[in-house]
Amino acid sequence: MKKFYLFCAAISFVATIAVAIISCKKEPNKDQEGTCVIGGIGVAGQFMFWVSKDYSGGPYTVKIYDEQGNDKSHSSLDNNQLTVFEATAPDACNKANANYSKHAVAQLLFGKKYSYTATSENRTFKGTIEVPCDDQYTCKAIQIDK
């Protein structure tokens, strides 16, 4: 009988710890517009657009749109021209990368969804980007031709 009580006590203890851990998991703070915030400031990540091969037709001009279709290119893009192709994803966080300035690079707010178009003389790529609050990356490469 004593073993039974010890077993029940152990189960109760484990259940209490599990509830405590689950209740400690905190949802990210968001402002009224759904943007993830830390200390009241919207948090942005860096996204580098890249293309895996040369389709010819010159550079790509990248445009970014929010969920309502508003053009956010002027406020989000550090560079809107994509002028180089690479066989593998570039390191989006490395500004020392020799080709860094040849990629379109955007600062996008966490907790938001965006769409983009990348247009050259003879080709257009379109896609969407969802940037969740819990995304562990502050920098990410987005392949436009997949």
- Helices and strands: which structural class? alpha+beta
Distance between the termini: 64 Å
CATH architecture designation: Sandwich
Q: How many distinct beta strands?
A: 10
Basic shape:
globular
Beta-strand residue percentage: 25-35%
Query: Which residue ranges are poorly predicted, with pLDDT under 50 across at least 5 consecutive positions?
Result: 4-26
Question: How would you sum up the major sheet?
Answer: 4 strands, mixed
Q: How are helices and strands ordered from N to C?
A: HEEEEHEEEEEE
Average pLDDT rating: 75
**Number of distinct helices:** 2
What would you note in describing this structure?
- By secondary structure, the protein is an alpha+beta fold.
- It has one domain: Immunoglobulin-like.
- The chain is about 20% helix and about 35% strand.
- A four-stranded mixed beta sheet has the order 5-7-3-10. Strands 6-4-8-9 form a four-stranded antiparallel beta sheet, with no helix packed on it. Strands 1-2 form a two-stranded antiparallel ribbon.
- A hairpin with a 2-residue loop joins strand 1 (about 35-40) and strand 2 (about 40).
- The longest helix is centred in the first third of the chain and has 23 residues, at about 1-25.
- The radius of gyration is 22 Å and the shape is globular.
- The chain starts with a helix and ends with a strand.
- The model is unreliable at about 5-25 (pLDDT under 50).
